[in-house]
Amino acid sequence: MGRLDGKVLLVIGGGADGPPREGETLAIGNGRATSIICAREGAAVMVADLKLALAEETAAAIVKEGGRAKAVACDVSREEDCRAAVETTVQNFGALHLLVNNVGIGIGGNLVKTSTDQFDRMLSVNLRSHFLTMRYALPEMAKAGGGAIVNVSSLAAQRSNSMISYEATKAALLGLSRSAAMTAARDNVRVNTILPGLINSTMVRRAIGDREAAVAPRIPMRRQGTPWEIGKAIAFLLSDDASYITGTELIVDGGLSAR
Ligand SMILES: NC(=O)c1ccc[n+]([C@@H]2O[C@H](COP(=O)([O-])OP(=O)(O)OC[C@H]3O[C@@H](n4cnc5c(N)ncnc54)[C@H](O)[C@@H]3O)[C@@H](O)[C@H]2O)c1
Question: Which of 203, 206, 250 to mutate to test the pocket of ligand 1 (most atoms within 8 A of CB)?
Answer without folding.
Answer: 203
